[in-house]
Every structure is written in C-alpha cells, then in structure tokens.
Amino acid sequence: MTLDLSFADAADAADVTRGLVLANARLVLPDRVMRGSVAVERGRIVAVEEGDRVPGGAVDCRGDLVGPGFVELHTDNLEWHIEPRPRVDWPHAAAILAHDAELAGAGITTVFDALRVGVVLSGGPAAETRYARGVATEILALRREGALRIDHRLHLRAEVCSETLLEELSEFGPNDGVGLLSLMDHTPGQRQFRDVDKLRAYVIGKQGLSEEEFQAHIQASRALRDRVGARHEAGAVQAARRLGAVLASHDDTDEAQVAASAALGARLAEFPTTREAASACRDHGIAVMMGAPNLIRGGSHSGNVAAAELAEAGLLDVVSSDYVPSALLASAFALARLWHGDLARAWACVSAAPARAAGLQDRGRIEVGARADLLRVGEVAGHPVPRGVWCEGERVA
User: Which residues are listed as membrane-spanning (predicted)?
Assistant: First the structure.
C-alpha cells in the first residue's frame, strides 16, 4: 500500500525525487524567526539560507511561516476515532487512517499514539474493553505498508488502578517500538480527580451512571487500588525499562508525588495538577507537559492549575494537543503572545521540546541534518492556517 499524493500541488509531487526548497518564508528557527529558505534532499534538511530569493523550482511561500512539524506525545484522538460513540467499535484500520490524516492536516508530523493498558473488566455499567495490543498491531502493520502519512510511535498509558495491567504489558516487546510509558492512577479522590464532584460530572456524563452506581464505582476503584496499586506500579516501571521507553508520570499533585515519580525514573510529567508539583518537577529535572486545550480555554476542565499560569512562571516545557489535534498550532501562537512575541520559544514547546523529552534527537528543529518535517502556516481572518505539511520531505497535507 502506498500513499496517494494526489492532494499535493503538481509542483510538489516530485519533491521526494528531486528535492524540495521552501523559499521566501519566515523560518521558525530554534532561537529566532528569519526570512529565508530551507532546502531538503532525501528527507533531510541540507541548507538553511537567509533572504527572500526564490530559486527556480522552489516553492514561493510568500512570507508564510515555515517551522518544524509538531511532535505529539499524548493524544486521545485515536480513541475517539475507534469509539466515536459509546460502545461503538469502529473498524480499526479505518479509524487509524482517519486519525493519521487529521493529525497530518493539523501539522503534526510525529505522534505517540496513546493506548491505555489496564482496564476493569468487572465494573458493571462502567466495565471497560481491552484494546491496546490489537490496535498497536494494526498501527505497526499500516506503518510497515507505507499507508500512514506521518511517523507513528506507541505510548502506553499504564493504569495502575485496573485488573489487567501486568497481563497487557506482557504482550508488548522491544520490537514494538514503545517510546513512552506513563504511570496513570485515576483512583477517585486524588490527582486529576481530587474533586469528587468534578469526577461525578465526568463519569456520569460519559457513562450514564446513576448516583448509586457512581458511589459503587468509587468504592470499587479505591478497593482495587489498595489491592493491586503498588504491584502494578512496580510492574509498569519494570516494563518501561524492558521496552526501552521513556517513563512519564501523570497528574502529580504535590512535591511528594513528584519526588516519588523522580525516584522511579520519570523524565516527563504529564499534566501536573498544581503549581507546586510543576515547580517540584523543575527541581528534579523533569520536563513539564500541559494540554493545549487547557491553554486555549484558559483553564483545566477538571479544576486543576492553568497552563497559562505555568507558562508565565517559566514552568512549562511541552504542550500536548490532548484531545484536540488542531490545538497545537493555536497553542504556539497563544504562548507567543504570553511570551511577548517570542514565537521561536513558543514553537519549541510543540516541536523541539517534546522531541527531546521522548529521546528523539533528529527532529523538531530547522537546521542542517535534521529530518525534513516541516509545516507552512498562513493567516486567514487573523487565524493561523496550515498551508502545507511535509514529513521527511514528502508532502502529506
């Protein structure tokens, strides 16, 4: 199976074979924005030059921004495609391809598809379905066949408050290329859902539980965490080492939880819920990731710390689209406004910083030798709009 390039401009269709030059662009470099051109051969950046000259055969970007493609570390978007309505299991290959196309169109050129491992099978109305191994196998097969537009990698979200975690983790091996493993604990009354009323609104709204069923869910979850939590956490940490994956914490709330995450080897903190926790991450050398929807909406839907507050305090390193792929582009501009017009710094939060946090040294920057993952952005009615996306020099959107 090969990628159909019929959506690309005719001038771009030959980019893969003859090279690509994006000229007369405002290039988002690691430390500044510069008018210039970027040249690509065999999927790599081979030259970055200053000036507005448009060589023959080059794409004239007419002053549009050109920056490195976005690197997405945590997105629930694939799950929405797989289950577009409660209890509706959409054909997985079709879901993966639709997800891939959506991300490419949003400027994302590398994604760590977040797959939950660890479910509760005996939860009555709140019972869950195992899916991670099967979906991962299909992602990897589509990648081998060349059917995917962008670079897909795996992110296992290890739920310690579950029944199946260790069994599911045992189904993955080093050849699966798992790049991230995050430790999640959604036991009611702590971390993301310290506020049980917020949890009530979320669970009852999503799963349609009665109040009686919700209270039973809380009691069962807490009892399960007491029974298996410590063993599951240790097993997940061991699995991350076995798989060669970066270990991430999830929803750390206070300094003690951050210290515990650091002791386990966490290098990335997903969505710390308080400023105290984010500050402690900085002290422990752990990169802080927050959600773009939090930044765009002006706050957390769970009542936790606002991403903008952490950005203004210098405590934000990485932005994730979380559940809205297009939010990454919007978040780069929102951060630039917060940081007094420093678009280079803001863009790094969705490109170089997540690449570095995931251990990928070959992407996220416009510089000679880097992967030619590029995004051209114009402006329509005052809003940034993707006008072209290239993954390893190949036009994908």
Answer: none
pLDDT tens string 84-97 = 988 899 999 999 99
We report the CATH number of the domain holding residue 24 as 2.30.40.10
Decide: residue 220, CB within 10 A, 0-12 exposed, 13-18 middle, 19+ buried: middle
What is the band of 207 on the pLDDT scale with cuts at 50, 70, 90? low
Amino acid at 198: K
The tally of domains found in the chain comes to: 2
Question: At a CB cut-off of 8 Å and minimum separation 6, what does 287 contact?
Answer: 267, 268, 269, 281, 317, 318, 353, 356, 357
* Residue-wise pLDDT tens digits, 273-300: 999 999 999 999 999 999 999 999 998 8
Name residue, tokens 């005996």: 122
Q: Which residue has the higher pLDDT, 204 or 168?
A: 168
DSSP codes of every residue in 216-252: HHHHHHHHHHHHHHHHHHHHHHHHHHHHTPEEEEES-
Give 286's DSSP letter: P
Q: What CATH number corresponds to the domain at position 104?
A: 3.20.20.140
User: What is the rounded average pLDDT for all residues in the chain?
Assistant: 90
DSSP 82-150: H-SSTT----HHHHHHHHHHHHHHTTEEEEEEEEEE---TT-GGG-----HHHHHHHHHHHHHTT--SS
Do 54 and 101 sit in the same domain of this protein?
Answer: no
Do residues 154 and 198 share a domain?
yes
Name the DSSP class of 42. T
Indicate whether 80 and 196 sit together in one domain.
yes
Three-class secondary structure of residue 67 per DSSP:
strand
Give CA angle at 95 (92, 97), nearest 5°.
110
Q: Are 289 and 307 in contact (CB under 8 A)?
A: no
Q: Whole-angstrom Cα distance, residue 112 to residue 265?
A: 20
Please enumerate in sequence order all residues whose Cβ is within 8 A of that of 279, keeping only pairs 6 or more positions apart, or say none.
313, 315
The answer to whether residues 62 and 209 belong to one domain is no
- Domain enclosing residue 30, as ranges: 1-67+364-397
Return the closest-CA partner of residue 368 out of 81, 77, 137, 29: 29
